[in-house]
Each structure stands twice: as C-alpha cells, then as structure tokens.
Amino acid sequence: MRTAVVEDALAGVEAGRRGGFGLVIGVDRTARPATRDALLRHGAHLVVRDLTELLVEAAEGGSP
C-alpha cells in the first residue's frame, strides 16, 4: 500500500519519514529558502508552498 503524509512542521516531516510513509510532503508556508532546506533535511521528499501545487503536478502528468 502507498501512503503519503503532508506536514508543515519539521517534527511532523521527520516523524513521517521515520514512520515509513511512501511520500513525505513538506509545506513551506514561509516561502523562505532556509525553511525549504530545513524541511528537506528533516526528511521531506517534496516541498511545496501551497497544496494546489500538487494538483498542478497531477494535471500535467507529473508524479509529486
């Protein structure tokens, strides 16, 4: 089974990665490079500013 977690807190992203979720999406509400980098360091596979970015990816045939 494939599972995903969406989280905006560093601790939540890290917990999702440690929990073995297939996809960990970090939401960067600050739009600062340092926050994006921190989410990635804590285990996010993908970082978006807004969840609508995921809809754009799906519509274009990408796989976030």
TrEMBL record:
This is Hydrolase. InterPro entries: HAD-like_sf, HAD_sf.
